[in-house]
Amino acid sequence: MRPSSALPSFARCASEGNRATEGLPAEAPRAKAGGTIAHSCAAWLAAALGALAASAAQAADRSAIRIGWTAWSDAEAVTQIARQVLEERLDYRVELVMTDIGLQYAGVARGNLDVMLMAWLPTTHKAYWDKVSGDVVDLAVLYDHARLGWAVPNYVPESEVSSIPDLGKPEVRSRLHGRIQGIDPGAGLMRASERALADYALTGYSLLSASDAGMIVALDRAIKRKDWIVVTTWSPHWMFARYPVRYLADPKGSLGSTEAIHAVARKGFEADFPRAAAFLKKFKLTIPELEALMLRAKDSSYHDEAVAYVRAHPQRVDQWVADAGTVKP
Predict the structure, then answer these.
(1) Number of domains in the chain
(2) Which of 192, 224, 247 is the last residue of a domain?
(3) Using alpha carbons only, what angle is made at residue 141 by residues 181 and 288, rounded to the nearest 5 degrees?
(4) 10 lies in a domain?
C-alpha cells in the first residue's frame, strides 16, 4: 500500500505552545469565553493553499483518486474502509491527503482533491459548506445520527453536573479548574464550543485546544486520578466504547443536534471515476460498528482493521459496489 500524503496542519500554526497541549492541557493555548480561538496563521494558510495548488498537476492526470482526510478517529476509519474497497475491489489507485478540514473543502472545490468523506452537515461544517457548496457535489450520506457534545466521566455526580448550565456553578467551575478540554482549533466542534460558552455565559472558563489524541490523553489522565474534566467530543468516537463517560444535556442546542456525514466530491469526479462514485453513493456504515472498529484499531491500526472489516463483510461490500460495474473477484 502506498504511504499517505500530508499537507501542513492547522494545529501546527499554533507553534510550540500548541504542540505542548498534547497531554498537557493545563498549558494549552486558551480561548476565553466570547473570544476567539483563531491564531495568526496567515502565512501558514498561504503556504498550505500553495501546497494544494502545487498538487493540482498531479491531480490533473486523474490516474489516482485523491481523498482528503483529517486525523479524527471516525474519519480515519471511514477513509481506510473506502480505500480498501476502491483499491482491492474496483482496482483504482488511491492517494490519501492528510490536511485540515477547511483545506479539504477548499481543495475539493478547487479540484486539487477528488473527494472528502467527513463533511458534517447541516450544522457543524455549515461555515465551510456555505463557501463551497456551489463548487462541489454532495455525493451521499455515509452515516447519520452523529452528534457533537461535551462529556464528563460517569463518576462526576449527575446530581451536581448533568447539563452544560451546571458548569456555571462556582463549586463546579472550581472542581474543573475553569477548563474545557477541546480538540483541533480549526474544528467545527471548537466553534460550537465557543458558542456554548457564550450562550450559557460560562465566564471564568478557558477552552483548551489540542489534537484529538491530546484530548484523549487529558481524559485518560483525569480518569486515572478521578479528577473532574469536561471534554469536547462527538459520536462516533471510540472513547465511548472504552471510557465510562456521558454527554451533558445542551438545552439551548448550542452544540447542534444529530447530523449526517456526507461524501463530498469535486465537480467532474463522477465523470472521471464513475465506478468510484457509484460505490460511494451506496457506501453506508452505522455508528456502533464504526465505534467498535475504532476501538479495535487502538490496539492494531486503522488500516489493518479496515482490511479485516472488508474481508469479514463480503456481502455488504458486494452491495456497496453493485452499481459500480465490473468488479474484481
Answers:
(1) 2
(2) 247
(3) 55
(4) no
pLDDT over 80 at 136, yes or no: yes
Domain of 138: which CATH number? 3.40.190.10
- Position 5 in a domain: no
CA distance 264 to 304: 25
Mean pLDDT of 28-40: 38
**Residue 155 neighbours by CB distance under 10 Å:** 11
Q: What CATH number has the domain bearing residue 163?
A: 3.40.190.100
Using alpha carbons, list the distances in angstroms from residue 114 to 107, 152, 179, 290: 8, 38, 39, 24
pLDDT-based confidence at 61, cuts 50/70/90?
low
pLDDT for 110-119, tens place per residue? 999 999 999 9
What are the Cα distances from residue 283, in Å, to 141, 176, 280?
8, 41, 5
Which residues are CB-contacts of 50 (< 8 A; sequence separation ≥ 6)? none
For residue 144, name the pLDDT band (cuts at 50, 70, 90): very high
Can you give the residue range of the structural domain that contains 188? 23-39+147-247
